[in-house]
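Box 3.1. Reading complex inputs
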Amino acid sequence: MTMPSSYLPPGLPIPVPEPDGVSAPYWNGLREGVLRVQRCAHCQAWQFGPEWICHACLQFDPAWVEVEPSGLIFSWERIWHPAHPALKDHGAYLAVVVELPHAGRVRMVGNLLGDPLQQVRIGAEVQGVFEHHPEASQPYTLLQWRCR
Amino acid sequence: MAQRTLKGRVAIVGIGETHYYKHGQSPDAEFKLALQAVLRACADAGLDPRHIDGFASYGDDRSEATRLASALGLPRLRSATMQWGGGGGGCCAAVANGAAAIATGQADCVVVFRSLNQGQYGRFGQSAGSGTISGERAYLVPYGVISPPQRFAMRIQRYMHEHGIRQEALRAIALASYHHAQANPRAVMHGKPLDAEKYDASRWIAEPLHLFDCCMENDGAAAIVMVDAERAADFAHKPVYLLGAASGSSHRFATHAHNSPSYASANFETVAEDLYRMAGLGPADVGVVQSYENFTGGVVMALAEHRFFSPQEANDFLTLENLIAPSGRLPLNTSGGNLAECYMHGFELVLEAVRQVRGTSTAQAARSDVALVIGGPMGAPVSNLLLGSRDALGETPR
């Protein structure tokens, strides 16, 4: 699923991998419309955010696996006070932490699409929505969430 | 081998701070504020500043130890330590790092301080960043999760969900800070009382945080002077001893993109127990608490993790009556703290704990022989500190 427009107005910083590239498979995956997280091929532990080593068994270079972008709302906030000039007159918006039960309960932070004043329920099922920004100076994609 | 501890080894003999300003209103440069605070702490101790031979700070303080040593004409600088982590979670760890230098013979007289001039250098609560972003913030900032309240509100929301914490519990913490600030002429919010109606009517910053759940941003500086406990009686005031100190982080707490295994936590699960173990004390021994209010919800979690109440008891425990000096069950943030005295990145809380043990607070607690400071809940690393009188030490220093 793609979005015709972005949830937040333009002007916020563009996410890119660190100079060492540890998160590049994640950000590149989003651009392809695929959610990838780390899963150690040695011990099967899930891991996010990305790191060069598996926190569970200390094997280097955990594998990247594709996972279904769906999950449960783990927490949320409705943000009213803007902290960036791009958001100055935008009004309230919703951020959520989404837990992925099928991927070792790793969590993702994104926005909850739809009415920013909607009632939000912890535990609600949400589906990922890839928000592509091909026109940006450095094209990127965000992963947003919509209630199922 | 001697027991590995800071208990009873080091004493705080001087405290000093500048005038506390609203952010952007200091007429003085940040480094000048730092110098003022250092000199006032020395004057309070009755100490010639040339006897300082160490500095400790945190939060990436810009007033460098070497520049301070040069500016003050110190004969020599020995210890210069900076606690990792950009937040106020280092406010107690900096004291511990300076104390460790004294206890191990690496320095004799260490000043611990924090200086901030946000008018000169920009605010914590605003970002004008554009271009690209990577690392931990890349998972947050493009989604508008930028400033500290936005980064922490979801931990608090989850905690309130898991334990049924009501907004009134957060409100009581804000009311206590403002209540105490009305007695404190140093406080930026002195003369500006807060009541429940005003709190309830205040705008949301990021639900579940109202305006009054969030710390101020200020300009100023604060400092303490520490020496070997054996020398503590030589100074002007009643010495205040370190009973314990701890810092750190629980299992993978700082994992990126809000993946802390223990998410609804202030990150004191391990650090609180380390503190009590060093001090040989428990929560029942603590008479007064200064707990860093970046956000009131973090104070709720931090107090529970220091075992003053269980999360299930928070709604009943956290009432204004219980939190105010002199005789509430647990007088909290008796100077007004980050919410109402000054956001000196938590260092004003260390000074207030010293005043409580000395008996010179403007909101003196009935029991103040053991004072707890909690630094930077929900950050990583966090830190804490137990200070006490000679009697609380229960032994001859060292």
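In summary: Chain A has one helix and nine strands.
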